[in-house]
Amino acid sequence: MLRSVILVLLVIAVYGEEQNALRQLISKRGPVALSRAISSCKQGRRQDCEDCSTVKICSYDQTALTSYRCQDVDPAKPYCTGEGICSETQEDGVVCNEANELCPMNSPGFYPDPSNCTRYLYCDSEMLGYEQNCLAVNNVYNQTTAACFLKRRSSDCFQVDCKNSRNINKWFVYTPFPQLYFLCSSNGAIMFKCPRETDVFDLDLKRCEFECREAGRFAHPNVRMYYECAFVSISKLQKFEQTCPPLLEFNAKDQKCLEKKNDLMS
C-alpha cells in the first residue's frame, strides 16, 4: 500500500515538473496558438464565445445562430471571455494570439484586412497577427503608408466579401497594392505576397509576374534575360522579354547585357 502511494506521488511530481517546464517554454516563446472549442453552444447559454474574439448567439437547442466580432463592436474590448462577454483583456489561462491567415509567410510588417478596409494588422516573424482599426470616422487603411487616411472616393475602400458563396475558392489581387493577393476560403481570406517588389499577381497564370511601372530595362529571374518596358502609346507601358546574346548576362546596374567577367569586376 505504501509503495502504491509513493508511486502515485512520484507520478504527480513528474507531471507537475513537466507542466512547469511547458509554462516556462511558453513564457519564453511569447504568444502561441491555443485553440478554443468552436462546437455548439454550451447548454443553458444563449450567448457564448466562438473563439477568442468572436461572440456567438445561440438558440435553446444549443445551435449557433449568428456571431459578431468584439472588435467590430468596441475596438477597446477585442476579446471574448466567459459567457460571450467582450473584454479589454484576454481570459485567464487562454492565449489568444495565433498565426493569422492574413499574415504572408516570413514577411513581418503591417498588412490590410481585405474584407474590411478600416481594419489592418501587424504580423510578426512567427505570423502572429495583432489586429488594429482605423479609429477616425471615414478613415481607411493605406498599405503604402501603413496608416489610415481620409476616404475621399469609394475606390479608396477596397474590400471583398469572402463570406459570399460566389467568392469562395476564388483568387483576388489586393488592387491598392498588387504585390499582395489572397484566396477567399471557407474560413476567410488567406493572404500571400509576391517575393519581389517589382512583381504583381497574375490572376490568369496564378503566379507572380513582373509589372512595368516605368520605361527601361529590368532584371529577369533568368540572368541571361531581361524585361524591357516601353511605351506603346502616350500612357500605356508594355512588357517585353529579351534574351542576351550568347555568353552575355544582363547587368541591372548598367541596364544592358555584358560579359560575365565584366559583371564580376564592376
UniProtKB/TrEMBL annotation:
Residues 100-159 form the Chitin-binding type-2 domain. GO terms for cellular component: extracellular region. Gene3D superfamilies: Chitin binding domain. The keyword Signal applies. Residues 1-16 form the signal peptide. InterPro entries: Chitin-bd_dom, Chitin-bd_dom_sf. Coiled coil: none annotated. PROSITE patterns: CHIT_BIND_II. Keywords: Signal. GO terms for molecular function: chitin binding. This is Chitin-binding type-2 domain-containing protein.
